Amino acid sequence: MPDKKKLLITASTLPRWEGDTEPRFILDLASHMTDEFDVTILAPAAPGAKDEEVLEGVKIKRYHYFPIHSKETLCYPGSIVPRIKQKKVRALLVPFLFLSLKHTIRKIHKDYDVIHAHWVIPQGIVQSSFSTPYLITGHGSDITTLNNPIVRALKKKCFKKAAGITVVSEYLKSKVMTMTDKQDIKVIPMGCDTKKFGQEFRQEGFFGDDNKKTVLFVGRLAKIKGVEYLIEAMETIDARLVIAGDGPLREELEAKAKELNIDCTFLGSKSHDELRTIYASADVFVAPSITMPDGAQEGLGLVALEAMSSGIPVIGTRSGGIKEIIEDKKTGLLVDEKNVAQLRRAITDILESESLSRTLRHHGFAKALEYDYANTAKRYKECIREILR
User: Tens of pLDDT along 279-306?
Assistant: First the structure.
């Protein structure tokens, strides 16, 4: 058997260690590509994370980008743009990150046959300076925000030099097409490992001994997630709201829930193993995302897919990529963003109608299977093969 081609995946979001609560979709995708490629992931260093290790059978390399390693806090926990908004002084770390990534790529890029750069900023822009062929994947805010003339020119260069372009939603494809003449832009979602979720993980009484129904949100507590509108919608609903996640708005949202006298529990960040039980034990999942003033929207909404895989009905807003997952009244319910009355009605309809809940659960699970890594990884591997031909 010939040696596997060497694939370097560059990313700025990755679990820092086993059991970390950071998003793991890059790691999951990489682990589903090791059957065909010799895969290494390159990601920024983080306090407490090893410089080199193997996770899920994938080699991990982390590069340092600031002399004082304990100050390497630009990327974790969370992601770059929200962390800068949370603490503007972190913007001073951006040039260090770019330069360190560029220095690292310069040293190692010729050791690989192909590179898969996740996020246009910074990975794609940096990769466009080197000769190794690369696939660029846009995820969301890396495309929809930071579009001043200088950064937009750098994005255009990234797309021009890329051997292949993918995005995670049709919405993002429309945005990329304003920055390139290339027509062969593939829409391939990150995917969901549906085998890791399901009703077999449900625990009756998990959220309390009473018979209250549970409404669930999972995600980062940031403005774009629209959690404040979910809290407002719950004001007149006799159900428990459970919020799993952390972020800059946590204190503000806790105060709002208390002010409205809502039965609301903030769990904080939870590991992916813990989330399986949390999803499965809820009665409805809500993704109330909104469009930000700068045009930023959610990319696809992987948490909605995880909820569908867990066998619970899903409600989402008509914002960003989530409306590509939810077919209204079939795989879930769609409401207008920021519309508290519509959101309240949708939650109530599901909680009061077992027939509706059953229909949404059935079709939602079938939809999630379309996004299983068995399908999405296959498409990413085909993109890599095309580049290598």
Answer: 999 999 999 999 988 887 887 788 999 9
